[in-house]
Amino acid sequence: MVRTAVAFCPGHISGYFKKVAGETPETTGSLGAGIVVDEGVRVTASAADRPCVVIRQVDGRGRTLSESTGAPPVEYLMTELGVAARVETTCHLPIGSGFGLSAAALLASATALDALFDLGLGREGVAALAHRAEVVHNTGLGDVAACQGGGVVCREGPGTAGARITRVMTDETVHALSFGPLPTPEVIGSPEQLARVAAAFPPECPRDFAEFFSFSRAFAEKSGLVRPEVRAALDACDEAGVPASMTMLGLGVFAAGEGAGEVLAGFGDVYPLSVAEEGFRLVEVRES
Ligand SMILES: Nc1ncnc2c1ncn2[C@@H]1O[C@H](COP(=O)(O)OP(=O)(O)O)[C@@H](O)[C@H]1O
Ligand SMILES: CC(C)(COP(=O)(O)O)[C@@H](O)C(=O)O
């Protein structure tokens, strides 16, 4: 009999953020706001002789587009837990493009490993471990905290333990577009970039969806991260009166409201996304 654990975690589009450098990974993270989206990473895990991670990118119909092996942050989870498994991650959204997929892969993997090996970590233990892996590898700061639940989320403290996190639910559709990756470690590992980002940070939580967009856009403009292709798409949204900003940290744009999908379609493949109602979760444990 082979035991397989399946878990899912939604992605997170960060609209704005500010790094908080604590003494430990637990107290390190970011403040900021973003949208937890219904697409993310699905993980299947089964015991193996040695740790192995397979990353699969699929199209809208679930057909495999590419497959690669090895993901240091996910392997770190297994080292820390002292377990060995074959972990397969599947996602449709592009990796490295500001959709928080490293955090989603970590939360879904830790959830699946917890169930597979009966480790008793629970939601808080899973989130704490995933956050540590993310911070240690510089692949993100606030996405794990955000993906503990759904909604338009504002984080007023770093990390997953005790930070004030508020969520606003909405049935709006968000349209997102990616021109390619913007490697997270390059930005959050650079003191100059972080200083600009910190100076651009709006210190309040947005009251509603519209304010989330205006705060995000003001941040994007001041952050110095907008590149020409992103600028062209933002300009087109402005002309059409569509609220839009840049996916942090990726070379992409997200927009909402009437006409958002049509305007972005002029620039590439658009992902229509719903705001997620809940965060990471175990899907099933099956024996076959
Ligand atoms: N779907 C995934 N499955 C496994 N590992 C992933 C996945 N997405 C990201 N990662 C890990 O995170 C690293 C990229 O992190 P990052 O640039 O922060 O991506 P993102 O912006 O999508 O969160 C990858 O090199 C890989 O190690
Ligand atoms: C913006 C970012 C630092 C990285 O996000 P991503 O590239 O999606 O991993 C995020 O973790 C945050 O703190 O808001």
TrEMBL record:
It is an enzyme of class 2 (transferase). Its EC number is 2.7.1.169. The keyword Thylakoid does not apply. Keywords: ATP-binding, Coenzyme A biosynthesis, Kinase, Nucleotide-binding, Transferase. Signal peptide: none annotated. It comes from the Archaea. InterPro entries: GHMP_kinase_N_dom (IPR006204), Panto_kinase (IPR054946), PoK (IPR012043), Ribosomal_Su5_D2-typ_SF (IPR020568), Ribsml_uS5_D2-typ_fold_subgr (IPR014721). Pathway: Cofactor biosynthesis; coenzyme A biosynthesis. It catalyses: (R)-pantoate + ATP = (R)-4-phosphopantoate + ADP + H(+). GO terms for biological process: coenzyme A biosynthetic process. GO terms for molecular function: ATP binding; kinase activity. Belongs to the GHMP kinase family. PoK subfamily. Phosphorylates (R)-pantoate to form (R)-4-phosphopantoate in the CoA biosynthesis pathway. PANTHER family: PANTOATE KINASE, PANTOATE KINASE-RELATED. HAMAP family: Pantoate_kinase (MF_02223). This is Pantoate kinase. It comes from Methanofollis formosanus.
